[in-house]
Design a protein that fits this description.
The chain has about 120 residues and is mainly alpha-helical. The chain is built from 4 helices and 4 strands, in the order ββααββαα. It has one domain.
Length: about 120
């Protein structure tokens, strides 16, 4: 895999021409492809998954996946909640704040889309 070079977010890209307007997340999921598990805040002061109403079985599933990823040293796995068939979050209504705050079309979005080979973003 070749490193991805980020350019400024002006209206053009030398490789792709005019950048596409990104209006929604349909047929994408690029931002979900390397997080491994839903990125909930979990520390001594806060359990965001519990705050969002994530059930105990789902929280246990997240913990098991974190242990699995820690054991293998893998950090680039798709999110546990990402459905590769629908390209959507399986538990969208309970998604972490960081996912809610993700800005469609910003440089993070375009970087993820380019990394995944989506529309030359």
């Amino acid at each position: 895999m070749h490193p991805i070079e980020l350019q400024s977010t002006d209206a053009t890209d030398a490789r792709a021409g005019t950048l596409p307007v990104i209006e929604n997340c349909d047929d994408c999921g690029a931002c979900c492809m390397t997080v491994g598990t839903p990125p909930f805040v979990l520390d001594e002061e806060r359990d965001e998954a519990r705050e969002r109403g994530v059930s105990l079985p789902l929280r246990a599933e997240i913990q098991a996946r974190r242990r699995e990823l820690d054991a293998t040293g893998r950090r680039d796995a798709p999110c546990l909640w990402f459905d590769p068939e629908t390209l959507r979050c399986r538990h969208h209504e309970m998604r972490p704040q960081v996912c809610r705050d993700y800005t469609i079309g910003d440089w993070h979005c375009r970087f993820a889309r380019r990394r995944e080979g989506i529309d030359g973003a």
